[in-house]
Amino acid sequence: MQKSLVALSTLAALGLFACQPNTSDEATTTSTDNANASSVAAEEMTDTQKQAYAMGASMGLFVTNRAEQQEQLGLALDQDALKQGFTDGLNDTLKFTPEQIQQIAQQGEEMLRTKQQEMAAQAAEKNIEAGVAYLAENAERDGVTTTESGLQYEVLEEGEGNSPAATDMVKVHYRGTLLDGTVFDSSYDRGEPAEFPLNRVIPGWTEGVQLMKEGAKYRFHIPSELAYGERATGAITPNSTLIFDVELLEVKAPATEAPTE
């Protein structure tokens, strides 16, 4: 959403430049102002300079992010054409009408989305294959137990306290990794344990943590269907099998709701 807004503001800015042709005197003045602005420290900028700088920075950041996105998808960004378009917008020498530019930009967004969907579908298929192979091999290791749902767990350290019910609040430390070892979430790294209702998390957690007692440490190998399934979130791509090291610190009774009147 934010990038789309920046893109629209960029197009609007180019349209604004196109509607305001420079005379030779105006061009000279603008060039001088730009040279002066580039040598001014941030704290010395006037409000007008700050606003102009922010507009230019927004355009630059959008282009940088877009270029990174396209490179990841194998779509090169033609920098020469980009620079030519920006210059033509400034000089009111556009090769296309503003309406055509908007249409071309929308086509580019659609092409990017289509490529992203294709890449996501390919990643999802690979993740399923990798997950099935990993879980099959992992199930043969000593100390690994597979439940009826397909969840796999191993006991790293037994506990002696209470076991939670699905409706209980739990306080845990945990670390989540992908099959390649990438850490995508860790309460240890944040330096603070997490608390949440056990029935408000992914099914693999809801099932697995109920097997634990306070003070226990388990490692869960969670099939994608018991994790995020086809959803993608952060570094987790669709159909990812996940590994969690979980330390159950405390079981808390669910918060009671206020009586209704």
What features would you describe in this structure?
α1 crosses α4 (79-91). The chain is α+β, with helices and mostly antiparallel strands. The chain has helices at residues 2-18, 24-38, 47-72, 79-91, 98-138, 187-190, 203-209, and strands at residues 145-146, 152-157, 169-177, 183-186, 194-197, 217-222, 242-252. A hairpin with a 5-residue loop joins β1 and β2. Strands 1, 2, 3, 4, 5, 6 and 7 form a seven-stranded antiparallel β-sheet that branches. The model is unreliable at 1-31 and 257-261 (pLDDT under 50). The chain is built from seven helices and seven strands.
Distance between the termini: 42 Å
Main pleated-sheet profile: 7 strands, antiparallel
Average pLDDT: 85
Strand content: 15-25%
Report helical residue fraction: 40-55%
Which structural class should the secondary elements be placed in? Answer: alpha+beta
Globally, the shape reads elongated
Q: Catalogue the unreliable spans.
A: 1-31, 257-261
Question: What is the alpha-carbon Rg in Å?
Answer: 27 Å
Number of strands: 7
Count of DSSP-assigned helices? 7
Order of helices and strands: HHHHHEEEEHEHEE
